[in-house]
Specification:
single chain; 120 residues; mainly alpha; 2 domains; 4 helices; rod-shaped
Length: 120
């Protein structure tokens, strides 16, 4: 706190004592206004220094690389192979229906993998 600020507070306290309780609200409002202005000045100064990057500051770090790409591929292959074997192994289904089901399974797996890759 600067000497001027301390002086302002002392003057406010002296004015409060001199004026009496009838002027409590006016003295308090004046003091609060001056304190608010000082806080605003300090916040503005901090924002100005924070907004200007130092030339010696390190560049911002890149986001960490996400892992799990191999896991999603492995799970996709296992699921796709298992689902394909179930469709092909089912009896009483026409071969055209089996081919369509296998294509749908692999298209869904491909869509999931593409969505996962784009999200990275």
């Amino acid at each position: 706190m600067t000497p001027d600020e301390r002086n302002e507070i002392s003057v406010s306290v002296a004015a409060h004592q001199e004026l009496g309780p009838d002027y409590d609200k006016a003295v308090a409002e004046g003091l609060v206004e001056r304190i608010g202005e000082e806080i605003d000045k300090r916040v503005d100064a901090r924002l100005r220094t924070a907004a200007v990057p130092s030339p010696l500051a390190a560049p911002p770090a890149s986001p960490p690389a996400r892992r799990g790409g191999f896991g999603i591929v492995l799970v996709s292959l296992i699921f796709g192979t298992g689902a394909t074997s179930v469709v092909i192994g089912s009896e009483g289904t026409s071969s055209v229906a089996q081919v369509v089901m296998v294509l749908l399974i692999w298209a869904a797996i491909a869509a999931i993998n593409v969505a996962y890759a784009l999200r990275r």
